[in-house]
Structures are given as structure tokens and as C-alpha cells.
Amino acid sequence: MTMDLRELYQDVILDHNRRPRNKGRVDEPTHHADGYNPLCGDMISLTLHIDQNRISAIAFDGQGCAISTASASLMTEAVKGKTVAEAQSIFGEFQSMVTETAAPLEHPDLGDLEVLAGVREYPVRIKCAILPWHALKAALAGGSGQVTTE
Ligand code: ZN
Asked: Cα(36) to centroid of ligand 1, in Å?
């Protein structure tokens, strides 16, 4: 791990990597998608249970680096209990946070997810951070195939 990368591994990221929240599979998923980031080798399998347009349960499984695991863990916490529209809005906000190159905007809705803002300095890591979100987007769209970051 280089010095530059170490700055990325803040406490919240380390904590979510060590003790991922919502790890596993939900019972009787109504939506699912798999994601793969060939650049890093991150793989994620996302399952959701959506009741009346609300995400009542969400879980992820798979193998990945600390950034992708922490991002997936934080994502499940952020969208659990939210409506599909709210989750899509959080996706948009997260995507703009990690990809915007201009002066960082305020993202008050993102909460703990803001710890991942640092990845925008590291293009390779952006794909790790965004992977679970692409899987979420695919799952919400009703797809069940595999998405990749490439
Ligand atoms: Zn990765």
C-alpha cells in the first residue's frame, strides 16, 4: 500500500472493510445484480427485497478490496429503507461526488458516504468505489445480469 493510498483508508473505511454491514444475501430477493471490476478484481453480488417500491432489505456478497467492500457496506446502510427513487437520487449524488473534478460540492445527504470522496483523486479507485452502485442501479432497473466498470 502506498502512502497516497493510505490516506484513503480512513477509519470509517477500515471499519466497514473489517466488519461489513449487510453482508450475505437477503431472503427471497426480488431484485439482484452482480458487478465486476476487472481492473482490481472486485466482485459483488447484490440482492434486494423491494416492497411497494421501498427497499426493505439489501445485502451484498463477494470479494473485493477495502474500498469496494466499504463502499458496498456504506451503500447498503444508506439505501436500506429508502424508496427506489430516493436510492436512485443517492446514487446520482454519490456518483457526482466521486467523479467531480471541480471544487467539491456539499453533499449533506450522503452522510458517512462522504468518507469515500477522497477516491476522486485516484481514478483506479473510483471504479472500486462505484462498482456496488452500478450493481445497485442495474438491480433497481430490473436487470439481473452482470455489470462491469469497463
Ligand atoms: Zn478494488
From this structure: 10
Separation CA 132–CA 70 (nearest Å) = 10
Q: How far is the CA of 22 from the centre of ligand 1 (A)?
A: 19
The model's confidence at residue 1, banded by pLDDT at 50, 70 and 90, is: very low
Q: Which fold has domain 3-148?
A: Sufe protein. Chain: A (3.90.1010)
Q: Report the separation in Å between the CA atom of 51 and the middle of ligand 1, taken as the mean of its atom positions.
A: 31
Tens digits of residue pLDDT in 89-140 = 999 999 988 887 655 566 667 888 888 888 888 888 999 999 999 999 999 9
Separation of CA 79 and ligand 1 centre (Å): 21
Q: What residue segments make up the domains of the chain, in order of their start?
A: 3-148
